[in-house]
Amino acid sequence: MTATTAEAATRVRKSFRPSWVDLFLWAIRIGAIVIIAWGLIGSILNFAAGRGLSATQWRDLIVAALSQGAMYGLLALGYSMVYGVLGFINFAHGEVFMSGAMVGFIAANWLFDAGIWAANPILSLFIVLVVAMLTSTLVAILVERVAYRKLRGAPRLIPLITSIGVSFFLQYTFAALFGVAVRSYPQVPESFRGALNIGGFRIAWSSVLVIVVAILSMIGLWYFVTRTKSGQAMRAVAEDKEIAALMGIDVDRTIVTVFAVGGAMAGVAALMWAILFRGVNFFTGFLPGIKAFTSAVLGGIGNLVGAMGGGVLLGLFEGVGPLLILGGLGIPGVSQLKDVVAFTALVLVLVFRPSGIFGERLGSEDRV
Amino acid sequence: MPLLEIRNLKKSFGGVMAIGGVDLAVEKGEIVSIIGPNGAGKTSLFNVISGIFPPDEGEIIFNGVNIAGHSPSEITKAGIARTFQNVRLFPNLTVLENVKVGQHCRTRRGIWSAIFQTKGYREEERLIEEKAKEILSFFGTRLVGYRFEQPAFVLSYANRRRLEIARAMATEPTLLLLDEPTAGMNPRETAELTELIGKLRSDKGFTVVMIEHDMRVVGEVSDRVVVLDHGVKIAEGTYQEVSTNEDVIEAYLGRPTELRKTTTEEQKA
Amino acid sequence: MTAATVDAAAPRTARFDVRRLLRYSGLAGLAMVFVAATGMLETFNNRLLIRPILSMGYLILLSAPFVMGYLVGKRTEIEGVETAPRTSADVVLAIVAGLIAGLITALFAALVDTFPGLRGTFPRMGPQMVSLLTFDRGVGIGFLILPAVAAVLGALGVAMHWLSDRLRKALGVGALTVVSTAIFESVVKDVFDWFSTLPRFLYHTAGGLSVVSAIVLFVVAAGASFFLQGRKVPGLGSLTSADTGERRRSSLIAAAVVLVLTIVLPQLLGGVLNELLTNVGLFLLMGLGLNIVVGYAGLLDLGYVAFFAVGAYTMALLTSPLSAVPFQLNWWQAFPIVLLMAALAGVFVGTPVIRMRGDYLAIVTLGFGEIVRYLFLSDWLSPFFGGAQGVRRIPGIPVGSNEIGGSDITQFVYFTLFFVAIAAYISWRLQDSRIGRAWAAMREDEDIAEAVGIDTVKAKLLAFVTGAVLASFAGALFAAKVGTVFAHSFEIIVSIIILVVVIVGGMGNIAGVAVGALVLIGVLGGPNQPGLLQEFGEYKLLVYGALLIFMMLQKPEGLLPSARRARELHQEEYLQDAWLDKEGRFVGQEQEA
């Protein structure tokens, strides 16, 4: 490369005049970093001075955050898969989750009244799990058949708007059917209260349960996606619908499978919610839904491992973040702002790193 | 000074080098054709010139200014307009609206004057309408009269291509980049459009660079022909020179086989 | 393109198809169970449309088998020719399907009757619901009534197809008139206060239409429709025309009518209805703003309520004596500052999303909306925004020595309508302007718009700012009307409802948005505001959700599509006529390429 062309090369780069849009974005980046750093330092100083939370409390907080994150991760799988295959955000997935939780409650309540809940905790939890999974799967499949199937191939905003409609419809249907009062799952059976002792560490049983279930589900999903024919079909359809059809794959049925699997995972997440939070009503799906979508994008939309990773990350941000950063800044009423952290994470990820941390996996139709 | 000067332009997509060091100069008032087999990098070249992709290396000097890496709207404002291989109109806008939209970068009245309907605004709108109709009349009777209010999606294929050119003309360019303007046209339409391209230069004073596959068009209207293959320029000259150039023929037809060579050798023997 | 009906893929035979039977009866049965189980039947039963025979609850319940019958007979039409003939097999199918649907519902009622414990989990499934489903005839005979009625309705539904198009449409108009008159009872009573014979004739003293007036209305409306069909009635009909000239003329007529109504109506309506009208006006204002962002520029903003909030809080802070701001302005003085803050908000929201693809843009704006609301609500910022209590003691709009606020609603309405008029005017002017064309181009194909010389960054920001400013009109008015501003009024549901209004009414069309606001907010009500049908209270959002799904699947261009959308709709007509010039003469060979 001669001298003049080397100059020319640098000149090309310089002629990218930074527009004020870029300046604005940089200002936000810097602002975010400053806030996070300041808060972190504040928290570290607090900790060193013995103020705020103790080491054990932080540890418990982190474990709790991780288990919540596992739940978000499972829920995120549904968003990720649907986006990877069909290219739109299924707003109603939060309500799929909620339906599993609500109907699971009926089962749990019945088991409790029948005394089985206390007598046979593992069996009870298993039954609730099955009920929740079945319900969520059914709702997911129904929604696909009724609302989305006709919109295949429409510009992606149309199914998004439709899914918003579905979301509200489901929410208020459940509100009408069940009433608006919050229903509480019976307390976790005796043997699962308290904490588990592992080499000096005490971890709450609920967290253990949740994390174990999450790991098992991920293994099951991995097996399904990589080793079974349906799973392969799913991956093929996600890659390129047209070519998959030409290869003899029943695209419609595969898409139903995608929704079903997402629904099943949401059902598992519903059980986790029941264990961790116990209270459900028609509105329970809204916030977790948005947080799960954030997790999916955070990890790289379409990327299943990423969805789980994103979920865990978001769980950490949300569980630990407010106290760590905003607490470090001395802001009062920090627990209120937990959801703000989630939404801020959503905005920051979508604006600055929409392809996610682990990289997105889109079908050929959706790749730019 | 040439109107457009491209120096050592390079652009890769992923691992593929679409443009591998192209030099090109176009004088004002010329009609230059760019030809080459499929995948030669012709449309990529247009995409880089018109700002859709920034080049990896090299300069694009237009009217003395390096426009490489600028945004498409800035380049259009600077005076380069283009059409697309797969005609990209605004399908639901009317014929007239498509052309009016082209004038956007040459007009200025904004929101306030639109709301208050100031005299300046109304005058400008009148001029926009007049100019749009004038541009469309360049195509004879094909896009005038009742056609003005028709949405673009009803137009026949040839009319769509014409409309796209009209829209490009509306941006008041100095340089027009036409990407396969006669693709898909029957012989009569092709002949008509070829004449039109000539008129674009002679009546309207545009400089035209076009990508073409139809050699009759190329031969009839171009001052100069540039041949690309695998992202580099392999020949340049008049149509006569280029069409008899061995490298060009080889690019399109391939090298003679071993068998043929043996036959020739046998013949020699 | 018309959406394919359920039958499009079905075999083209007149055979008795069991799968079809199961599908139709299942769906109808499910619909009826849904209406009963969610409690709609019970709640709406209190609203009698025609006293004493028809309550709204029964209307909704029994519309299911009727519609099902209609769909059984529906055939897709391709170029005016139906794909398969209708036979008596269809009638039989409709009747049997109705019967089965009714049986399913009766079984459901029996189930609820047998297990009173269900009420613990499902509060609506009680004896009241059972008695309604058995038409108060109790167990036994009662269970057979519904299947019989459903069968009859199914037959009626399918029979509709044997009527001429004209007659069918006339019957539809008749029915719609009756139902509308029943729903708009309070409006009619207020408006015709001075001519009380009319309301007294129409309505029963206890509410609802009297049987006689219902019949009279039906006959008159159906008759009028029957005779006027096919005749060109200048005015509203041509609002959906694709011919720009015709549309413009009828739009002007409509606008003039609306203007007169606007001035006269508030005087006639009582306080409650003026309150409703104000709410409709505020949502219409926001709808017009969102129409610019979504309808003109194609940017799906799900956090639009944030701009409304910014407008309201700014006005509150500047005018309330209790606010953190040390000085106090009056409404008019504060107004320009409100607009400025809204414009800034528009820039702040618009800039980060400039380069994002459509669906991510939607979610990010949703995120912004929620973040803004949380910040307004937070304890942290409560010294400024009042936290959960918000900002109180906001004075009304000063006129002379008075302050017009929510308590003088009849006068406040005029302010709202005034600003609606301004917003409508702005929207109207922008639509056909240079920037309007740029927005349309950007909406059609952003990359090409950029290539043609449009600075999409500026165009997008202009759209956001304009939308934000219009929303702040509503915010400023809202603050003065309610006197208190707190975060609860700015939830995401508000953004969604405005979106539904715009989509259902007709995106990109000012009249469409107006119709959407009137029909949705007026009849169903807003998120926190009751509409004409107050009973809808808890089912409002369910209906909004269902409406959104329905519109997206069947008629995404809305009830009153914009001129461009109308062109898209009439594509086939255009394509056929493309060979004809304006006078209908075939264009010669040399004209066409």
Could you explain how this protein is built, in words?
The complex is a heterotrimer of chains A (368), B (269) and C (593). Chain A has helices spanning 3-14, 20-48, 55-86, 93-113, 116-119, 121-148, 157-178, 205-227, 229-239, 241-246, 251-276, 286-299, 304-326, 338-352; strands at residues 183-184, 195-198, 201-204, 279-280. Chain A has 368 residues and is mainly alpha-helical. Chain A has one domain (39-352): ABC transporter involved in vitamin B12 uptake, BtuC (Orthogonal Bundle), CATH 1.10.3470. In chain A, strands 1-4 form a two-stranded antiparallel ribbon. A two-stranded antiparallel ribbon of chain A has the order 2-3. In chain A, α3 (55-86) crosses α9 (229-239), α12 (286-299) packs across α13 and α12 (286-299) runs parallel beside α14 (338-352). Chain A is globular. With 269 residues, chain B is an alpha/beta fold. Chain B folds into two domains: 1-79 and 173-269, P-loop containing nucleotide triphosphate hydrolases (Rossmann fold), CATH 3.40.50.300; 89-172, no CATH class. Helices cover 41% and strands 22% of the residues of chain B. Chain B has eleven helices and ten strands. Chain B has helices at residues 42-49, 72-78, 95-102, 111-116, 119-137, 157-170, 187-202, 215-221, 239-243, 246-253, 258-268, and strands spanning 4-13, 16-26, 31-35, 57-62, 65-66, 80-82, 175-179, 207-211, 224-229, 232-237. In chain B, the strands form two sheets. A six-stranded mixed β-sheet of chain B has the order 6-7-8-3-9-10, sandwiched between helices. The radius of gyration of chain B is 21 Å and the shape is globular. Chain C contains 26 helices and seven strands. In chain C, α19 packs across α21. Chain C folds into two domains: 1-162, no CATH class; 269-573, Orthogonal Bundle (ABC transporter involved in vitamin B12 uptake, BtuC). Chain C has helices at residues 18-37, 40-44, 56-73, 88-114, 118-121, 127-133, 142-159, 165-183, 185-191, 197-202, 211-228, 244-268, 271-296, 305-319, 331-353, 358-377, 382-385, 409-431, 434-444, 446-451, 456-482, 492-505, 510-524, 540-554, 563-569, 571-577, and strands at 48-51, 54-55, 77-78, 81-82, 209-210, 397-399, 402-404. Chain C is 65% helix and 3% strand. With 593 residues, chain C is mainly alpha-helical. Chains in contact: A-B, A-C, B-C. At the A-C interface, α2, α7, α12 and α14 of A face α15, α16, α22 and α24 of C.
